[in-house]
Amino acid sequence: MNERIRAREVRLIDENGEMMGVMPPMRALDIARERDLDLVEISPNAMPPVCKLMNYGRFKYEQAKKENEARKNQKTITLKEIRMRPRTDDHDVEVKTRKIQEFLADGDKVRVSVQFRGPDMRHPDIGRKLLDGIAEDLKGIATIERSPIMEGRMMSMIVSRAPGWEPPKKQAAPTTEKKASTEPTQTATAKPDDEPAHAPEAEEAAAQNDDSAQNSQTPEAEAPQE
Q1: Taking a C-beta distance cutoff of 8 angstroms, is the pair 88, 116 a contact?
Q2: Which of 16, 82, 106, 131 has the most C-beta neighbours closer than 10 Å?
Q3: Cβ atoms of residues 25 and 7 within 8 Å
Q4: Distance between CA 114 and CA 91 in Å, rounded?
Q5: Do residues 44 and 51 lie in contact, with contact meaning Cβ atoms separated by under 8 Å?
Q6: Residue 118: which region, alpha, beta or left (left: phi > 0; alpha: psi -120 to 50)?
């Protein structure tokens, strides 16, 4: 870069990617200084070497930024392990197979192992049959990266996620909402009270008033006869 370039001639490219021709490196360096840029050798093995005008500090910053972004987006693949016995029952095998699918859905690899103990060591074919059955169940979901092999008391295989396989999306549980009642509300209408019956005391008082009125009338006296 800059004064460290020892070639007799260089092919110069400006900061916009335009070819400026072949010239001595000192002439190219003068152009770089006039534009307040650096002269960077990008193809030292070319004939003549290719140099480019650029802001080297900014170039290094952009490169570091891109590398950091790439590391953030890069997923770390871990190797999970599922263990079982040669005589593991079918239900447990199904549960462990579903667990393998969960690991694969997360992008991890899985070592599926069968552990032998005591008399089981005399029947490795049982473990091989078990692993072959799991591989068949994972067909289209997993790729067998390493076929089953015996390592001491363990027989294991390694599987990874099959290209193009997408795990099913989990469906959200439906929410139940209480529906408002649409039945009309019946409003009780008050009925007018029956007309009150006349009290006996009132009737008796009215009768007495009538009698008093009749008694107060004085009969006319008869005129004397001559």
Answers
A1: no
A2: 131
A3: yes
A4: 16
A5: no
A6: left
Q: What pLDDT digit, counting tens, does each position of 106-134 carry?
A: 889 999 999 998 888 888 999 999 999 99
Backbone phi, psi, residue 52, to 5°: -135, 145
Report d(CA 186, CA 2) in Å as an integer: 95
Whose tokens are 């870069």? That residue is 1
Q: Which residues pair with 83 in a beta bridge?
A: 113
Which pLDDT tens digit goes with each residue over 17-50?
889 889 998 998 898 899 889 898 988 888 889 9
Distances (CA, A) of 194 to 139, 191, 200: 87, 9, 17
Q: How many CB atoms within 10 Å of residue 197? A: 7
User: Which structural domains are found in the chain, ordered by start?
Assistant: 2-71 (3.10.20.80), 79-161 (3.30.110.10)
